[in-house]
Amino acid sequence: MSVFTKVTDTEAAAWLPRFSVGSLVSLTPISEGIENTNYFLTTTDGEFVLTLYERLPAEDLPFYLNFTAHLAGAGVAVPQPIMDRTGGLFSILNGKPAAITQRVKGRPQLSPTALHCAAVGAELARLHLASQKFRGRLTNKRGPGWMLSTYRAVRSVLTEEQSKLIADELAFQRARRETRLPTGAIHADLFRDNVLFDGDRLAGIIDFGFAATDEFAYDLAITVNDWCVDAQCELDPPKLDAMLVAYAAIRPLTEAEMSAWPALLRAGAIRFWLSRLYDLHFPRSAELNTPHDPGHFERVLRSRVARPNYWPL
After folding, report:
1. What φ, ψ does residue 52 adopt, rounded to 5°?
2. E-state strands within the chain
3. Using CB atoms within 10 A of its CB, is residue 81 exposed (0-12), middle (13-18) or buried (19+)?
4. At the topology level of CATH, where does 9-103 sit?
5. What is the mean pLDDT of each run of 10 residues along the chain (313 residues)?
């Protein structure tokens, strides 16, 4: 959630009347993240988040916003998108598609315990169950084709060993995709900074900018790779067991998903290693932006490759 497009108070105040959210009180930029421009928006009617979508084409936005609205209607802990006076969920601000959502009270839990991991696992399972009734579909723009093109873009900055590791993993994942797993709309980026807690209570899942139609268990693996690891990027058994048990209690995994689990952990690792490599070496200009360390997910991938048959339950 960096600031790529600056919005002044005057510009925001002129744009707001299309929504029934009151008049502008304050607009505060949010520095975390790397994809979209976000501001905390306070009005005379309450507190919201203003998002300007930097990369997402306007024709894809209905999927993201309707998915979030669907989840909120199903009781999943996500912020409700705010419709404008015409019933639309976004409009153009400073040349970018922009939307307003409710602001969730809470803070990210960056040092989670097994209790937090269980809460995330349970809420992700509820999200996936609700997703099964969502009719929208959108191809994952960070899927196999994107991974291959991104690898080619960053190959010149890799060591020979790193290049071989990525090439081998992409070939492995292409073969894995031949097995069909349960799919639907997923979050695809449920890292610790995208879940807000109010004390120990999970208050909300935010930032659906990578949502897409893909495998539910892949979404779970992405989440595990961030929440359930130790300082050496190894899986942390108490946190992992807490998340998987809580998830499976609400949405039991199929035998095919359990069989594919080690490969799905690797798929989540290679996806984020590639994106962090690209963001580091080909950064976009932003007023507030700090790329994440790609080495972290290199270590995650190496750890997962070293344990090809790991399944804790």
Report:
1. -105, 120
2. 24-29, 37-43, 46-52, 91-93, 96-102, 107-108, 183-186, 195-198, 201-205, 212-215
3. buried
4. Phosphorylase Kinase; domain 1 (3.30.200)
5. 84 96 96 80 97 88 95 97 93 94 95 98 98 97 97 98 98 92 98 96 95 98 97 95 97 95 97 96 67 93 87 59
Q: What is the dihedral of CA 271, 273, 276, 280, to 10 degrees?
A: -140
Whether residue 258 contacts residue 221, with contact meaning beta carbons closer than 8 Å, is answered with: no
CA distance 220 to 204: 17
Yes or no: say if 186 and 218 are a contact pair by the CB < 8 Å rule: yes
Which positions ≥6 away from 259 have C-beta within 8 Å? 179
- Which residue type is seen at 228? C
CA distance 9 to 28: 10
Q: Can you give the residue ranges of every domain in the chain?
A: 9-103, 108-305
Query: Global pTM?
Result: 0.92
What does the chain come to in residues?
Answer: 313
Taking domain 108-305, whether its CATH number is 3.90.1200.10 is answered by yes
